Amino acid sequence: MAGFSVEAGKISRAGNRDLAIICLMHHVTESLLVGNLEDAKKPPLFVEGVLFLAAEHDIAPPDGVIFARIPMVEFGQATPQQAYEAVAWLEQHAGTRKIMVCCRAGMGRSVSMVIAYLCCAKGMRYEEAMQLLKARRPGATPLPMLEDTIQQVIRMRQSG
Q: Which residues of 55-80 are buried (b: 16+ CB within 10 A; e: fewer)?
């Protein structure tokens, strides 16, 4: 599947969720997307879950989706515990649902935790996951020391 963006203009409402909203999200796989703050606040109807990673914003869980928040500092290094929690949450939900991973801009923390998930849960090599995310999300800027953090998470998962 080629990488693509979904862009839509607001056209109508369904309950508290827009049928089509102004958004700019990027599909990484069939079930994983990365998005920004606005995407997290009002996910499109096909999104079934949101993992929100921006420490500087506290948003209400959107109606009708599963939701988790792991507050991560923008431009900072993810702790192994944060990455472990993100991978575990994605592993629990991304296999059966369309999940959107979001941060403020949808370029750093969200991309980084999807890379971590692909490496830790799906066995993808770091270079391959990085290449995939950069192809599917133009402007992707993974967090500092991400590869080291991923290696620590892999060791945490192996030790139980």
A: bebebeebeebebbbbebeeeebbeb
- For the chain, 160 residues long, the average pLDDT of each consecutive 10-residue run is 36 38 74 96 96 97 96 96 98 94 97 98 97 95 96 94
The CA distance from 29 to 105, in Å, is 19
Is the pTM higher than 0.90?
A: no
- Dihedral in degrees, nearest 10, Cα atoms 108, 111, 113, 115: -130
What local confidence, expressed as pLDDT, does residue 42 receive?
94
Distance CA 160, CA 153 (A): 11
Per the CB < 8 A criterion, the answer to whether 90 and 113 are in contact is: yes
Amino acid in the structure at residue 137: R
| Beta carbons of 2 and 30 less than 8 angstroms apart | no
Strands 5-6 and 32-35: unpaired
Q: Label residue 24 left, alpha or beta by phi (over 0 means left) and psi (-120 to 50 means alpha).
A: beta
Could you tell me the domains of the chain?
Answer: 5-159 (3.90.190.10)
